[in-house]
Amino acid sequence: MTDVADRATAGFRQEFGEPPAGHWAAPGRVNLIGEHTDYNDGFVLPFALPLRTVAAADRQEGARWTVWSELSGETISFGADEVDEPGRVTGWGAYVAGVVWALRDAGHDVPGARFAIASDVPLGAGLSSSAALEAAVLTALVDLGGLDLPADRQPRLAQRAENHYVGAPTGIMDQSASIRCRDGHALFLDCRTEGVEHIPFDLRAAGLAMLVIDSHAPHRHADGEYAARRKSCEAGAELLGVPALRDVTIDQLDAALARLDDPETRRRVRHVVTEDQRVLDTVALLRAGRVREIGPLLTASHVSMRDDFEITVPEIDTAVEAALAAGALGARMTGGGFGGCVLALVEAAAADSVAAAVTAAYAERGFTAPGTVTVLPAPGATRLD
Ligand code: GAF
What we know:
- The protein is an alpha+beta fold.
- It has helices at about 5-15, 80-85, 95-105, 130-145, 155-165, 175-180, 220-240, 255-260, 265-285, 295-305, 315-325, 350-365, and strands at about 20-30, 45, 45-60, 65-70, 75-80, 115-120, 185-190, 195-200, 210-215, 330-335, 340-345, 370-375, 380-385.
- It has a six-stranded mixed beta sheet. Strands 10-11-9-12 form a four-stranded antiparallel beta sheet. A three-stranded antiparallel beta sheet has the order 2-7-8, sandwiched between helices.
- α3 crosses α5, α7 (about 220-240) crosses α9 (about 265-285) and α9 (about 265-285) packs antiparallel against α10 (about 295-305).
- It is globular.
- The termini are close together.
- The model has no long low-confidence stretch (mean pLDDT about 95).
- 2-deoxy-2-fluoro-alpha-D-galactopyranose (GAF) binds near residues 35 and 174.
């Protein structure tokens, strides 16, 4: 068993005085490409990280859920009344209560349960710690209750927990990544149909490495800005008379932009339509085994997020520029924006020197030192024992 699972077990024993019935692990993610396309019914290409949240759990009598979290050191407990009224459980507990709510709301007979949660997914780094928590709790409840909810239907439910219970208007990418990713693969997800293709992403065989650079930038107004971007996209789709921006193809883009008066809406629409195309182009290259050629697409995605979607911050742009100047094949911010992490695709032998160059650029600008680590695509949510 992994260390994080050991910590969850120790927490469970200490809190509840006996061992758990089992352990369920769910990963954080990075998104290789396809940012802010999910809620536009478009395409994304995330992969799961080897960093996981583990829920040690067992059933308990009645409609009651008791949860200990390593991170806060507290135990919370709530019953059906609190669950059935979104907003009553707040803080980190809302992600757990939200999952219970979404399951009950969908008509499932959710078993009462006790949980001890431990996690290696850092909070606030844009690596989907919240989706990992939702997925760990959801998969545990599905197994403990023998619920009829196959993996391909679980992400939508976890997303409902986040949208309706927690109140964050996110798309379906992060929950899909945590639940449906496969070891060694990126997940090509069509967010309209929820159809997936597991795309082999063998960095080692290509002599490459993926550097994840945690910008350590404070998230400034990220929630409000995310909601504002979503609204702009929806307004753009309405003005263009399409159900979602996914329905504007790259060939139709110029004509579509010519119909929009507001320059900001034009920039938002251009980001989404070009980003969907970059996902398709990336998938085509990966299918053909041309991994190192995806670099320019990653960088173009970053430029689009910086100039058209306007969701980057100085720390993030500095990391991308320094990585590229030090020889990265491509680099981009990953995740919702306004902080979080940068991905840099590098020759395996250059990973250390690129990381050092980014660290030096941060020191020069007086930024808090970044975190740097290389990662390989890891498995999605699973029962450990
Ligand atoms: C966040 C959201 F949770 C996702 O749904 C997605 O929109 C992403 O930002 C941007 O691509 O992670």
